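Readers of this paper often ask what the protein records in our data store actually look like. The remainder of this section carries one protein's record, kept here as part of the documentation.

:::
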Amino acid sequence: LWVLETACRQAREWDLAGLPFASIAVNVSAVQLRDGDFADRVLAICARTQWPPQRLVLELTESALMRDTEILRRTFAAFEHHGIELSVDDFGTGFSNLMHLHRFPVRRLKIDRSFVSQMLEDLQVGVLTQAIISLGHAMGLTVIAEGVESEISMRALRNQGCDEVQGYHLTRPLPAAAMAEWIRARAAAPGG
């Protein structure tokens, strides 16, 4: 929870500084999701840091969805009630039950970088990437591609209808101050 609180605190600072960004995303583990008090702890962090829950995205793996328990359903219901979005991270690398994607309030699907890194060289991987994008859109999800490292990959994903991308092509991981400058520069750029 320290990472979540640090991320929310930093997001609040950036927001107060006027940086234009929609939300902050933080990975959570399957173990955390099994804790019956996890939703309350997340909401307490949002309150303590003054970060709106509606601008928080929690990223979880496919395996976190595999245990359909009462605790998980209550946790997800609390998140949905408060506007916290759920994103399935590294999609395509696990053994996902698609009914779990449909049953839980997941709003985002992140294509694993292993697909992105091979989609231009391997036709079948490119077809799978397109299928994941189509599946996500058919379920009303925002689809994000991880691990985009070139303009060619980014264009190919956009041509396939991918909604968002992340990866080294945009920027490497940055410390908070450098990230603030990167956001400012992108916002000031034409079409930013």
